[in-house]
Amino acid sequence: MKYIFHSVGKLCLIWDFVMNNPDKIIVATGDTKQLKNPESLSNVFTFEEYANHCIDLIFENNIMLSECKRLNNEIDKLKLKDVKHLIFKTDTDYKTIIDRYFQWTSEIELCDNNIAYTNKTCKEVSKKIREMKNIKDEFIIGEDVICRKYLKYNGKKFNVNFKFKIVNIIGDEIVLQNVSTDEKLKIVRWMVRKHFIYAYCYTCHSKQGCSVDGDIVIYDWNKWYCEKEWLFTAFTRAKDFNRIKFFKYDDDDKSKKVLNYIEQDNKSGRNISEDYVDRSFLMNLMNTHCENCGEVLTVDFENDKVVSNISCQRVNNDISHSKDNCIGFCVHCNCAFSNKISM
Ligand SMILES: [Zn+2]
What we know:
alpha/beta, 5-stranded antiparallel sheet
């Protein structure tokens, strides 16, 4: 059984199953350092504490496994311990960690295991790879696609994140073969267009639980909402750390949101202080409340876009966006306040 922490409802299903089957021996594996649920599960515990608390409630006996069996060699296992410590126990920025332990690439590479945060990046990377492969048709036989939007057609179900191979194209009909079950299913072209993406680049959420043999290129790690668990989940897919590359962005590890704040402060002639807001400051605001109206501050997915109402409100207007001068406001309150001030 694989733990799913994506909603309390699913945890309840597992709990129910265990409670209703006292005669069965149930063995489960899970990792609370995997991707976080974007919605707040508890206002008493941190995510990890809450997840562990649930495990303790459902299962009487726990064993903590400390070695990553996926990795092929001892050097990588030691490396993993170092990187895990730096990510979760220190405030070292991602760029420094990547610099020290992994390789960079500034080109989109012809590899099949690209990992990104957003569907938008997945689509862009896939588009570029298809160009590099000189594929001009919308779909070709032999190409893999991933279902990104649930589809039920002619009594057949297509589940999100399942992978299919295009095995035949007859006019407007496309025959897809489920890669794990080999079952063949025929659907109409526009449905493939609407419900599937090319399988050259995956979201980290869909790669969770998978091992990757070949080369991996990781994108989107510089987005401000890219949490520590995301980074950890992305690179721990690899069996060999030497085959991991991170995509190099021009603006280094500063996210667009932080760069915007720097631009605002520069324009207004405010000093950019040492303790300037950064990714972890923004991430820590997630699931807290707007200090003005009380709205929960969240990061959400809407279609292909990541939307967030998180913003930093400066307490003292003469000082820049330094950490001790900023509090969490929802975007609406932030805009309302700045309008008031400018009037
Ligand atoms: Zn607000």
